[in-house]
Design a protein that fits this description.
327 residues; Quinone Oxidoreductase, Chain A, domain 1; Rossmann fold; six-stranded parallel sheet; 9 helices; 29% helix; 28% strand; binds NADP nicotinamide-adenine-dinucleotide phosphate
């Protein structure tokens, strides 16, 4: 038996309009899969990369989408711990969330606690797990440290900033507009810098009395990479985890030597690679949400039908915080 679903697929890479809604047939879950009826889909910048072909998709037509919340409608014969009717969230580098129905590996979903809404879970699973590992697992940060975070008013950015502040870590944030400066400050940045109108490297050195920062979290890439390296303290770490503005330049590792700098490009799937790692990280995230450490209300909510508009707004830097789509 198959299940009829409505999905947004791409048949080629390109602008937001390559996303087209089509009726598809979804198979019964395999032995270790669950079939999920999505209620709220989380939108992430990584899906812009996949839509454009910055990152390749396995084959065309492709259903993009890396995060959603929904209700389990069927389970495979070998599935344990997840049953029909469970409310679950998922956010791996497995595509297929832009659909009313999605097949997913059962050991890669988390049951959503009752006091977290569908919208909150879809706003925060991929972005919150990312903020968490960046903050707690990529660099040995402790209370009193100062870091620089680029695009601090964005989805991951606001969660990172709020969580960092709760841990006593000072975040200097960059953004592209005055409106976003106010949002970054409200999220907990000690200072916000408009990197369109101000040289962020000069300003960071000024704000740190020429000491520099212990780490830079850079998902912008091309436009910020070189200056990000320049504001690090000796033995500091540049964490590049995205390239919204394009590929960063190639560098010679020897350029890191004078100040013994560290450079890493982490990705979430490696930090939650096992079911156990995912469960621990999800529990820590859910605790941060329910204790109010992070506010995971979405910045923007669109009907699923307006996915093309949502993609355009995200890539044209009009969104702040998380964006979700109601199915
Ligand atoms: N490696 C990982 O594990 C991982 C996991 C999740 C997300 N990420 C990355 O983290 C970043 C944030 O993800 P998100 O979903 O929360 O998106 P987001 O931060 O809400 O949106 C991206 C932001 O990047 C900034 N930006 C700078 N230059 C840009 C350009 N040329 N075009 C478009 N945007 C530009 C914009 O903020 P301003 O207007 O303020 O500049 C924009 O709002 C993305 O780069 C994503 O790929 C990485």
């Amino acid at each position: 038996m198959t299940h009829r679903a409505r999905a947004a697929r791409i048949h080629a890479y390109g602008p937001p309009e390559v996303l087209v809604f089509e009726n598809i047939e979804v198979a019964e879950p395999g032995p270790t899969q669950v079939l999920i009826r999505n209620t709220v889909i989380g939108l992430n910048f990584v899906e812009v990369y996949y839509r454009r072909g910055t990152f390749p998709v396995p084959a065309f037509p492709a259903i993009l989408g890396n995060e959603a919340v929904g209700i389990v409608e069927a389970v495979g014969v070998d599935v344990v711990g997840i049953k029909v009717g469970d409310r679950v969230v998922y956010s791996d580098d497995v595509h297929g969330a832009y659909s009313t129905l999605c097949l997913y590996p059962a050991d890669r979903v988390a049951i959503v606690p009752d006091d977290i809404s569908d919208k909150q879970a879809a706003s925060s699973f991929l972005k919150g797990l990312t903020a968490r590992y960046l903050l707690k697992e990529t660099v040995n940060l402790k209370a009193g440290d100062t870091v620089l975070y680029h695009a601090a008013a964005g989805g991951v950015g606001q969660l990172f900033t709020q969580w960092a502040k709760a841990l006593g870590i000072r975040v200097i944030g960059t953004v592209s507009s005055d409106e976003k400066m106010a949002i970054a400050l409200a999220a907990g940045c000690s200072h916000a810098i408009n990197y369109r109108t101000e040289n962020f490297a000069h300003r960071v050195m000024e704000l740190t009395n020429n000491v520099g920062v212990k780490a830079v979290f850079d998902s912008v890439g091309k436009d910020t990479f070189v200056d990000s390296l320049s504001v690090l303290q000796p033995r500091g770490t540049l964490v590049v985890f995205g390239k919204a503005s394009g590929n960063p330049p190639l560098i010679n590792p020897f350029d890191l030597a004078p100040r013994s700098l560290n450079l890493t490009w982490p990705v979430l799937p490696v930090y939650v690679a096992t079911a156990e790692q995912l469960a621990v990280a999800a529990q820590d995230l859910f605790n941060a949400i329910t204790t109010g450490i992070i506010n995971v209300e979405p910045g923007r909510v669109y009907p699923f039908d307006q996915l093309v508009d949502a993609h355009r707004d995200l890539e044209e830097r009009r969104t702040t915080g998380a964006t979700v789509l109601i199915v």
